[in-house]
Amino acid sequence: MDISRPDSPQPVQVLARHGKSFYWASFFLGPALADRAARLYQFCRFVDDLADGDLPDRQESLADIRARLGGSDCAAGPEIEAFIRLAADNNIPLQAASELLDGMLLDQQPTAVADQAELLRYCHAVAGTVGLMMCRVLNCTEARADSFAIDLGVAMQLTNISRDVLEDAKMGRRYLPATWVNCSPEQIASGDSQYHQPVALAIEQLLNLAEDYYKSALLGIRLLPFRSRFSIAVALRIYRQIGWLLRRRLTAWWQGRVVVSKPEKVMLSIRSIGELIPRRVPPHNKALHESLQGLAGVIR
pTM score > 0.70 for this model? Predict the structure, then answer.
């Protein structure tokens, strides 16, 4: 099934329109790396838009893409073929891309995450895998950087979930673990005041968990090539700032998204210069991946 878009925009346009934090960070990569990063983002955005869209056959389309990534010769559209070429040119593991599609397919069903382990495995599927793929795009040759790249993806996805609790609930999705809060997506979406405090406490737990993964990712940034290191540090700090802004207004999580302002982005970019100072990178904290065993890039 061909699910391509007519007149598809250029990768950098997709990044500028939909990934403002990453677009800002991409300015520090240089043209060649920025182009590759934008092409990877275009693929991820394409499948994400498909998963969250209203096409009646989107599940079948996602399954076709998953099959194509697995080696099938089914038609999946020019966007997917462009990604497969990018993957071949940059040694991107297609297992990671396939697991990304697995996460998108999970989202086609009503979602009610049971516990923290299930939450983390979902975050790895839809974002930890992107960290793995981005490592290859940015010319990282340090094998142990993969573990820290997964942590950054997981941290960013936890931030996304924290920011989008109400929006996700309206789509029948509750990523807040049931062990943290016993509310259905419909109850959260209702905005009823009796759910404000329980959901706020669960969001706070999400932000605390994200912080563990951000701290790990920040340690591993020094395994990246010099040029890439600064850009990823900027992206990390901007996304982390979203979490801190959310924390300031936990009691009003139902009021919609928070946004990092341009002056804040400038300040966070300046602070990221410190990540260019060479430092020893300690061993990865294996406890962060206890729930992720068997998934792409996870070391036993």
Answer: yes
